[in-house]
C-alpha cells in the first residue's frame, strides 16, 4: 500500500492522546451510606467488570476512528510501479498506399484512425506522426478531425527511420517511461538493414492485417513500336492472388477510345497493347478496377508532337555521317562551313559540332562560350593539323582542358565507360570481344573531364560531361575508322538527344525530372504547372531558345499537368506514383528483436490503462471512521 500524502502519517501519534486519557483517567469517589451492603457486593463486582469492558471497547473504537481519519487524509492506494512514473507516448501511424487494403470492408488506415479515436483516453497527451505529418503533444479530441482528414501518402518510412524519428519526440528526462507505438501493416518494403530497438524505450508493434491480399496493379506503359502512321502502346500489369484476368480501359481525356482484357500468367504478369495514331495528341489514362489497392488502378501518360532538336555542324569536313544519325524525324540538322556561318543562328541551336576546323576564330570562341553558358551542348572534333593555340583558347574554359603535341601512333579504342550516361543503356552487358575502332594519330590532352572512350594504353580519345564533349583526334576516314564502327551511332545520337531533354510519356513522382521546353519567354514571364485548379511554379532556368524545368519531389498527386505561359498551354506532362507498395507481402513482426507485439490497438491501450490503474482506498478508511463512530454510540447506549 502506498500513500499520496505520506507526511500526514505523523498524525498517528495523536493516538497516544486517547490512550493516555483512558489509562490515567482520574475518578472522584463519593461515599453513600447504606444500612446493609451485603446485597450490593455482587452488583458492585459486576459493575466493575462491565465498566472495564466498556472502557477498553471505547478505547479501541476511538483508536480505529482516529486511525481511519488519518489514513483517509493520507490517501492510501494500490498501484503497479509503472503507474507512478510519468509516461510519454509517441504513435507512428502508417498512411502509405498499402494501408488501402481492406479489413471487413474498411481500409486499414480508416480502421486504425477510428480505433485510435475510441481507444486513446480522452485526457491522455501524446505525439502522433505519419510519413509526412506530425501532431505534437495533443489529445485525441484535439486532433480527431485532423486524423479523419489524413490522406494516403506516397512516402514510406522504413523501420529504422520510424525508430529514429520517434526518438526525437521523447524528452531527455530519464525518469519518464517512454512508449513508441507503431501502427502499420508492416509491408516487406518497410524492413531496413538495421532495426535495433531504442535504448530506454518500450516499443509496441500493432500489425494491421487485411482480410485478403488480392490486388491488380498497372505497373508501367511505354511505346513499343512506331510504324507508318501508328504507335503501339504497351502496358504491363501484375496481380497478387488468384486473379485470372481483368478489363483494361484506355481514355483520351474523358473519352473511352479502347478496351481490352488482360490475362495473367502463372507468375501473375500480363501485357496489353493499344494502337494509337502517330501524330495525334493523346492525354491518356489507363484504368482497371479491383478490390485491392486503389492508387495503382490508373496510369496517366501523354503523347505529344515530338519537338525537333536543332543540331548544327560547323566545318568543311564531310558531315554525311551526322546527317544519317540526326534524321529529319527527330532533328533539324544543318551543316555550314565556317565562311558561311551566321553567328546569330548559334543561340537557336541545341547542339553544335565543331567538325574538324583547322582553327577557331576568336569571335566564334566568344559565341560558343556564351552558347554553352546558356545551356547549349558542344562537341569538338579537332582537325588532323589543327591550330592548337586557338583550340586551347576555347577548351581551357571546359574542365581546364588543353591539347598538347600530336602523337603519331596507331591505337585501338578499347576502353568504354559503360556507366556514363552516354553509354549507360547502349549495351546489355559489358563486352570484351567488341570490334574496336582505331586511329592513326591523335593529340595528347590534359583535362579534368572524365574519360568516355580511351585507347588501350588508357590515354583518352573522348572526354566530357554535362553537355561538352571533346575528341582527341580526327575521325575522318583517312585517320580513323570510327565513323564505320558500331560506336558512332550511339555516341552522336545520345549527344544529340541529351541536348534537349524532351518529356517521356510519363514521369514518376518523387524522382527528379528535368525537361526542356522549346519556347522564348517574354521578360518577367515564368512557366506554371496547373491541374484542375492546382497551380505550381517549378524550378526553372530561362535560356535563349528553351526553358529548363526541374521537378524534385514537390508534386504529390498523380495525373496530367499543363505547362503554361500565362494562359497558353505549351505542353502536357504526366506523373504517376511508384508501384513499390503494390506487392502485398508482409513482415513477421514477432521476429523483430526488442519489440512487443499487440493483437490490436484496443488491446494495447487497455493493457496500458491497466498498468496505469490506481486503486484508491481513502473512501474505505472514511467508512471505517464513521463505522467506529456509530459503534461508539452503540457502546455508550448499550453497555452501562
UniProtKB/TrEMBL annotation:
Domain of life: Bacteria
Record keywords, A-Z: Membrane, Transmembrane, Transmembrane helix
Boundaries of every Aerotolerance regulator N-terminal domain copy: 1-76
Parts of the chain that traverse the membrane: 6-24, 56-78
Classification via InterPro entries: Aerotolerance_reg_N, Class_I_gatase-like, Double_TM_dom
Full protein name: Aerotolerance regulator N-terminal domain-containing protein
Lineage of origin: Bacteria, Pseudomonadati, Bacteroidota, Flavobacteriia, Flavobacteriales
Amino acid at each position: 500500500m502506498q500513500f499520496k500524502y505520506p507526511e500526514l502519517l505523523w498524525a498517528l501519534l495523536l493516538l497516544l492522546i486517547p490512550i493516555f486519557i483512558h489509562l490515567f483517567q482520574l475518578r472522584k469517589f463519593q461515599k453513600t451510606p447504606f444500612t446493609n451492603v451485603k446485597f450490593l457486593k455482587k452488583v458492585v463486582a459486576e459493575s466493575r467488570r462491565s465498566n472495564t469492558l466498556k472502557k477498553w471497547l471505547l478505547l479501541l473504537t476511538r483508536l480505529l476512528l482516529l486511525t481511519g481519519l488519518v489514513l483517509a487524509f493520507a490517501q492510501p492506494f494500490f498501484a503497479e510501479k509503472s503507474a507512478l512514473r510519468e509516461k510519454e507516448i509517441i504513435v507512428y501511424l502508417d498512411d502509405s498506399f498499402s494501408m488501402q487494403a481492406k479489413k471487413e470492408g474498411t481500409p486499414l488506415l480508416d480502421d486504425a484512425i477510428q480505433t485510435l479515436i475510441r481507444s486513446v483516453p480522452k485526457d491522455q497527451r501524446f505525439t502522433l506522426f505519419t510519413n509526412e505529418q506530425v501532431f505534437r503533444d495533443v489529445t485525441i479530441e484535439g486532433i480527431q478531425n485532423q486524423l479523419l482528414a489524413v490522406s494516403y501518402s506516397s512516402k514510406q518510412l522504413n523501420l529504422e527511420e520510424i525508430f529514429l524519428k520517434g526518438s526525437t519526440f521523447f524528452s531527455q528526462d530519464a525518469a519518464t517511461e517512454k512508449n513508441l507505438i507503431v501502427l502499420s501493416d508492416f509491408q516487406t518494403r518497410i524492413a531496413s538493414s538495421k532495426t535495433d530497438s531504442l535504448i530506454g524505450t518500450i516499443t509496441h508493434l500493432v500489425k494491421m492485417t487485411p482480410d485478403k491480399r488480392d490486388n491488380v496493379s498497372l505497373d508501367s506503359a511505354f511505346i513499343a513500336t512506331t510504324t507508318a502512321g501508328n504507335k503501339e502502346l504497351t502496358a504491363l500489369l501484375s496481380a497478387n492472388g488468384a486473379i485470372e484476368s481483368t478489363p483494361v480501359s484506355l481514355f483520351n481525356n474523358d473519352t473511352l477510345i479502347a478496351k481490352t482484357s488482360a490475362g495473367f500468367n502463372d507468375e501473375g504478369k500480363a501485357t496489353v497493347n493499344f494502337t494509337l495514331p502517330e501524330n495525334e495528341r493523346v492525354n491518356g489514362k489507363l484504368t482497371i478496377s479491383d478490390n485491392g489497392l486503389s492508387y495503382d488502378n490508373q496510369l496517366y501518360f501523354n503523347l505529344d508532337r515530338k519537338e525537333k532538336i536543332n543540331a548544327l555542324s560547323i566545318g568543311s569536313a564531310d558531315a554525311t555521317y551526322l546527317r544519317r544519325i540526326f534524321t529529319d524525324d527527330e532533328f533539324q540538322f544543318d551543316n555550314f562551313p565556317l565562311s558561311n556561318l551566321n553567328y546569330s543562328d548559334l543561340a537557336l541551336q541545341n547542339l553544335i559540332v565543331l567538325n574538324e576546323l583547322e582553327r577557331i576564330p576568336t569571335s566564334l570562341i566568344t559565341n560558343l562560350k556564351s552558347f554553352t553558358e546558356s545551356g547549349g551542348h558542344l562537341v569538338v572534333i579537332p582537325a588532323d593539323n589543327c591550330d592548337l593555340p586557338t583550340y586551347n583558347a576555347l577548351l581551357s574554359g571546359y574542365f581546364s582542358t588543353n591539347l598538347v603535341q600530336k602523337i603519331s601512333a596507331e591505337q585501338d579504342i578499347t576502353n568504354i565507360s559503360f556507366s556514363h550516361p552516354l553509354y549507360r543503356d547502349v549495351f546489355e552487358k559489358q563486352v570484351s570481344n567488341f570490334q574496336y575502332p582505331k586511329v592513326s594519330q591523335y593529340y595528347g590532352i590534359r583535362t579534368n573531364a572524365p574519360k568516355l572512350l580511351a585507347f588501350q594504353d588508357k590515354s583518352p580519345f573522348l572526354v566530357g560531361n554535362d553537355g561538352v564533349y571533346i575528341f582527341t583526334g580526327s575521325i575522318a576516314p583517312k585517320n580513323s575508322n570510327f565513323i564505320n564502327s558500331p560506336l558512332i551511332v550511339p555516341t552522336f545520337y545520345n549527344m544529340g538527344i541529351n541536348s534537349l531533354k524532351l518529356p517521356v510519356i510519363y514521369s514518376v513522382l518523387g524522382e527528379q525530372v528535368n525537361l526542356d521546353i522549346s519556347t522564348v519567354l517574354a521578360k518577367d514571364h515564368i512557366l506554371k504547372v496547373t491541374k484542375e485548379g492546382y497551380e505550381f511554379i517549378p524550378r526553372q532556368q530561362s535560356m535563349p531558345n528553351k526553358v529548363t524545368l526541374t521537378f524534385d519531389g514537390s508534386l504529390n498527386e498523380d495525373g496530367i499537368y499543363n505547362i503554361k505561359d500565362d494562359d497558353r498551354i505549351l505542353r502536357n506532362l504526366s506523373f504517376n506514383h511508384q508501384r513499390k507498395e503494390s506487392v502485398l507481402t508482409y513482415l513477421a513482426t514477432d521476429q523483430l528483436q526488442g519489440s512487443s507485439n499487440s493483437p490490436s490497438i484496443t488491446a494495447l491501450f487497455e493493457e496500458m490503462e491497466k498498468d496505469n490503474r490506481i486503486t484508491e482506498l481513502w473512501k474505505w478508511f472514511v467508512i471505517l471512521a464513521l463505522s467506529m463512530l456509530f459503534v461508539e454510540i452503540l457502546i455508550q447506549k448499550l453497555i452501562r
